[in-house]
Amino acid sequence: VKLRDLGEFGLIDRLPTLGVYRHRSEDLLVDIGDDAAVWRMGDEFLVATMDTLVAGVHFLPGVAGWDDIGWKAMAVNISDIAAMGAWPRFALVSLAVPPETAVSDIEQFYEGLYTSAALCGVTVVGGDTVRAETPTITVAVIGRAEAPDGEPLVLRRDTAAVGDVIAVTGKLGDSGAGLLRLKVGVDDQDPLVQAHLRPHPELAMGAGAVVAGITCAIDISDGLVQDLGHICRSSSVGAVVRAVDIPLSDELRVAYPDDALRLACTGGEDYKLILVGPQGRIADLQEGLETADLAVIGEIIKDNYEKRVRVLDDAGKEIRFDKTGWDAFKS
Amino acid sequence: VKLRDLGEFGLIDRLPTLGVYRHRSEDLLVDIGDDAAVWRMGDEFLVATMDTLVAGVHFLPGVAGWDDIGWKAMAVNISDIAAMGAWPRFALVSLAVPPETAVSDIEQFYEGLYTSAALCGVTVVGGDTVRAETPTITVAVIGRAEAPDGEPLVLRRDTAAVGDVIAVTGKLGDSGAGLLRLKVGVDDQDPLVQAHLRPHPELAMGAGAVVAGITCAIDISDGLVQDLGHICRSSSVGAVVRAVDIPLSDELRVAYPDDALRLACTGGEDYKLILVGPQGRIADLQEGLETADLAVIGEIIKDNYEKRVRVLDDAGKEIRFDKTGWDAFKS
After folding, report:
1. ipTM, 2 dp
2. Do A129 and B11 touch (CB under 8 A)?
């Protein structure tokens, strides 16, 4: 069996069954399979995540600038911490590049990365620099969760309950549209392109959700349908989303009138949060916000068998998409 | 300027000057440039490190088995925590591989990695799996330092003092020799090959050194001369090493009689610790050990200008090596 056939999520499902000698600390509270891991260390609750970006797969040198690549490598990891409702503190960075890379490109990369980190209060503390034919970036971010009563308050994927409402923290699809534009050479100051190159992690939204008593969230990296699907499978529920309620930007509607909904549902890399919780708590969070960026788009339903996401049109008919999102190994 | 010309250590020297907007938390105690970073989080002192291994550069699929590759990817990171005198607790793992990789190879990789982690009490808590043409592995390990009086007790690179003695925690050169043997197809049960494929991090030695009041150490990844050189430059001192006192295994002497010293000084990847401290404290540590594995090999001397390592023969004459060790970008 090849990895291509198993797929990324097939592999992740299989990992916990491996390792006869696997050590599992009882201090581990949230394991592989959420946006980030959570564990206890003394009186602190640590939240940690790590993502790898590969040139040609996750970013396009020459199309995106190295400062944008650095920004995004940091921001997508901070977004995982935001999706846990925690605060990021420190980061490790590994950069693998060919020896013939211009030093000025590397400097630009770190400028973008440090800036993205600094805006979120993250200190880069070390890492590694190695030689590789294909530029590859790995960032790990470590943060902390609040634990006012000795138990960490975090947002998980496995706590969605039937009857909960589903909300998103911003407009979707701009990043996917920006990628299309970037590939045809649109100026990188275009707002859609900016949404793709320079995501802003939703730290305040994540932390606010925790305060409002919400316990379930994920960030949109693979795409709304796929990421909400992760919540459904982890929580053993289904989800219905009303297409008309998915927030879309004017720029997206104008640029891709026929494709806006598909980009919003499957484009990915928006790095907004999907929050799932009782209607009253979502409403509490909405009231506490200065902006109207939290939009309710659907509900959690009972679905013991398929545990999947259904996007419905105005007539209540399901809209199907060819590809629901990203899988690292299937093509 | 290309990265090849600047070199890995030139790049590392330049990084702190980058980032107009770089955020530096006052909780950061040991920054980029040591084996691991150390920071305060609440009442805890965290120690964290991250290394990347690239196929064809750091490991050879087909030559080494995937279980060995997994073992080593974990062990070399745990070794960095050992070199700080700290205890590792949790790890994040990122695996980038081609979609046509056999799932059985991936399973072997995780078996080796989980076993190596378990033997050191490390829980693997998450990470990433992505597609890449060249297999690339990144592991981050996070541990904790003891802090009996509210200050973390760690081993650093910048605390060597003139008059300190230099000790190593085991025999050197076996790993370099094992790599040579592996490349010509010697059975992987050969003890030299095993030393290369399955390093054992020196956690007890690192922790013991801290208890003995030693404050300076590094692990041997790049090679004795180069890694001791990192201590010299960080501490602004020089070092003399007596070749005759460098511990060599019988296997190494027999297999490479003419090359044993060179392999011990520049072969790298032994993952023994270099400990530097006052003679009395090194002696205290030696007394506390059940084995005779701690060997004094030299002294720290004043050397304001070159800050370098001199390996001396029986007559006190310096032995020069063509290549002192590893640089990621120079070839």
Report:
1. 0.89
2. yes
